[in-house]
Amino acid sequence: MNEPLAVLLAPLLSAALLLAGPAATPLHAESLFVVCQSGAEISVIDLSAGAAAERIPVPKAPAGIAVSPDGGTAYVTHPDAGLLTRIDTTTRQVVDTTFIGGQPFAVVADPDGDTLYVSDWAGDAVHRLDGRTLARTGTVGVGRAPAGLALDAHRRRLYSADRESDAVSVIDIARFSRIASVPVGRAPYAFDVGNDPGFLAVANVRSGDIALIDKADHAVSRLPAGRMPYGLAVVPGTGHILVANQQSGTVSLLDPKTRRETGSVRLGGSPESVVVSSDGQLAYVSEWFDDAVAVIDLDGLAVRARIRVGQGPRTMATVP
Description:
By secondary structure, the chain is mainly β. The protein has no helices and 30 strands. The strands form 8 sheets. Strands 5-4-3-30 form a 4-stranded antiparallel beta sheet, with no helix packed on it. The protein has a 4-stranded antiparallel beta sheet with strand order 6-7-8-9, with no helix packed on it.
């Protein structure tokens, strides 16, 4: 299993021009920040060029990543050291690395304010942090070994995949309290990073399936996937779910309506996390053992390219 040294756990393609002050700052197209655990770096992929453009060294064993609502800051967790690193996404420089304690694993940024939420793998808790000072402003107990986090900003709900409790905790953000624990399958790990208004998808690593949680009543249905599904993403416009099956070495496409797999592509290299482009045309899949990110054409479900990155790529986030 891929526990800390950090496990985990989820669009694109346009250029942006930025002017600041009297002189132009460096131009960055939309990018994919790839957390490379073994290499202790963030590999930055220029999505318009389809190539790794830069590498940002960070402390050892990075795990989770989130990007601030304005796109200006990336936050990276380090479970083995109890650290959180902040990166300026414009300059591609580490701003600071702060000891926050515990085993910080997944991290999400609240779009409604300067607030972060971090799962604490060893502490069986989720912490709320001030995004500016990184001071802890609240803690809520959840199930055992919380891994992935998902935030529904509209409903003001935070979801924690409690891997060793086989359940997902539902947290009311306003009260910052757990209001439900939903059994979902064995070893829930990563959520879809989208924000579907009706349901939430979570990968169950040990039971080899995807749990769909109805956000209104917390009813659960399950779709069969490959062996050890670790990352997933809902494809915009279709509602299909793309799943990275780590032990199967495949990426499969599931149709929740028919409850069937509609196609798959073999990758090898222990595929882990998935990001889908906003137009639903491409998917990016980290290949942990191959030190690469596969670019998949979703129209034909075929590998278009492989982009070399640092050692041990795990989680990813897009930066506008």
